[in-house]
Amino acid sequence: MIVEPGMLEALKKTATSSVAPIPTVVPGHDPIYQTAGDVGNRTLWVVTVIMGLSSLAFYGMAFRQPVQKRLFHILTAFITTFAFLSYFAMSTGDGINYNKITKVETHKHVPDTYQTIYREVYWARYVDWSVTTPLLLLDLALLAGLSGANILVAVVADIIMVLTGLFAAYGSSDGQKWGWYAWACIAFLTIVYQLAFNGRAAVANKDSKTKAFYGAIAGFTLILWTVYPIIWGVADGGRVAGVDAEIIAYAVLDVLAKPVFGFWLLFTHDSMSSTSPSLEGFWANGFGSQGQLRVGDDDEA
User: Fold this and answer.
1) DSSP state of 67
2) What is the set of domains in the chain, with CATH numbers?
3) Contact assessment for residue 67 and residue 281, using Cβ atoms and an 8 Å cutoff
4) Is the alpha carbon torsion for 282, 154, 183, 253 positive or negative?
5) I need a labelling partner for 151 at 20 to 30 A (CA). Which of 5, 56, 191, 295 fits?
6) pTM of the model
């Protein structure tokens, strides 16, 4: 084929105009959804069953005791009952929401792009902790013989710890997230002080078996509770661990901190008379004759 000079110029122009212009902006990314898989969902159901069966066992153990000696049994049964309800909610898809964060990706010579990430937050877990951990603290505080003032401080610090953890889980920026996390850690240290120092001082007045038992079970609890913020830091906080790994880690801790703790406490409680306070009065008998409420009695003239 013979190409005339004019035709060659026309071909060059055509070839040049057919090339698309180079984009000046890097395209954005599709949103990433971090959700639980089959392993995580099965784990939730397993823990639901464990909490349910443990609750039935604790109520059964309570009925074997006179009402005056059921305080530890009732508190411990309530702990696993609320945990059962929480895990049932999470297993069935309730009590779950998404937290959205946006990461900025910088590029040379072109504008920044953004990556949106949606991660599941199991807010039902925080509702569970806000109820069950104060009850667990009551078990330990009553075992040690803590004063009412110290119990109040420990319980309030515990509620603050859980709520600030929830706020941190929904933080949209690192400043929000880790700021709330810091407050939660301060509240946790307050709890540690109440149990490790004031609790040990209070139990020092009791017999050697009670002192040894309190030291063991309180130390066991504080070690477990120390692991919780570590898991939060690599899961909801840093988002290094996946949702399934988060569920499994919390599941192991919850089983140890609630059913295992409960069976240990109650079996030891039932075998040691010194840890079995007898509560009379309103707890066992209701209002006495002088404290009864009367409805419809007319005043005598």
Assistant:
1) G
2) 27-273 (1.20.1070.10)
3) no
4) negative
5) 56
6) 0.80
